[in-house]
Specification:
Elements: E1 4-9, H1 20-28, H2 33-42, H3 47-55, H4 63-73, H5 80-90, E2 93-101, H6 102-109, E3 118-124, E4 131-133, H7 150-154, E5 162-168, H8 174-177, E6 182-185, H9 188-196, E7 201-202, H10 206-220
Parallel strand pairs: 1-2, 1-5, 2-3, 5-6, 6-7
Antiparallel strand pairs: 3-4
Helix pairs in contact: 1-4, 2-3, 4-6, 5-10
């Protein structure tokens, strides 16, 4: 029996043209946040430690401003909405898997995706500063301290039953790419895939992603 296809799609720099979380740090982050970002990219600091630490220094009172900022600057990548239709027509399951945070992702994607299609970090803004809730932390097979652990989500979809496709652009997608049957990549994820020898297909728009899936369908989805 043929496997079902499930798409694991990143948000910042992938579904959204912008790195929305970086834009929030630029506008609202504490001094020195850039060094934390660089350490995460270099692999010397975990995403959970770095992102959680930055938000812990941002007053909760600024969250409404951050939501408005995110909604104002975010642009969905060309073809994204058409890609959601494409997935529905072809019976592919679409999941947004993001290291971002619910308070800005949910408003941007309101009306496009149901909440059960979105895997991201939660937040608690009831205290003096923003506390990130790691609702999808690493399982027993991951030691990367991801925060929102994409490989752990993927393991809920056994490879015997699912053809797993990762669409992403950054270092947070690399561990997921190692488990994927098909990787569709841009930007830093391309660099990381080349470094570790992971095969990938490049993209810039979601029309490209659809073309990749159509082109590879005969071989990949049997």
């Amino acid at each position: 029996m043929s496997r079902k296809t499930v798409i694991f799609c990143d948000f910042d720099g992938t579904a959204a043209e912008q790195e929305v979380i970086v834009s929030l740090f630029q506008a609202f982050g504490p001094p020195g946040w850039e060094a934390v970002r660089d350490a995460i990219i270099a692999g010397t600091m975990s995403v959970r430690e770095g992102v959680g630490g930055i938000f812990a220094r941002i007053p909760s009172s600024r969250v409404p401003e951050m939501i408005e900022h995110a909604r104002r600057i975010a642009t969905l990548r060309l073809g994204f909405m058409e890609f959601l239709d494409y997935c529905r027509v072809h019976g592919h399951r679409f999941l947004l898997t993001s290291g971002g945070v619910d308070f800005f992702i949910y408003p941007i994607l309101d009306g496009l995706l149901s909440r059960d299609q979105i895997y991201c970090n939660g937040s608690d803004c009831s205290g003096p500063t923003v506390r990130i809730l790691w609702s999808h932390a690493c399982d027993g097979q991951c030691r990367a301290d991801c925060g929102m652990c994409k490989p752990s989500i993927m393991r809920r979809f056994p490879p015997e039953q699912y053809h797993r496709v990762v669409v992403g652009d950054g270092v947070t997608d690399l561990q997921a790419a190692k488990l994927a049957d098909l990787v569709v990549a841009r930007d830093l994820l391309v660099v990381k895939c080349r470094e570790v020898g992971i095969s990938y297909q490049p993209f810039e728009t979601f029309y490209d992603v659809m073309a990749v899936l159509d082109r590879m369908g005969a071989e990949a989805y049997r």
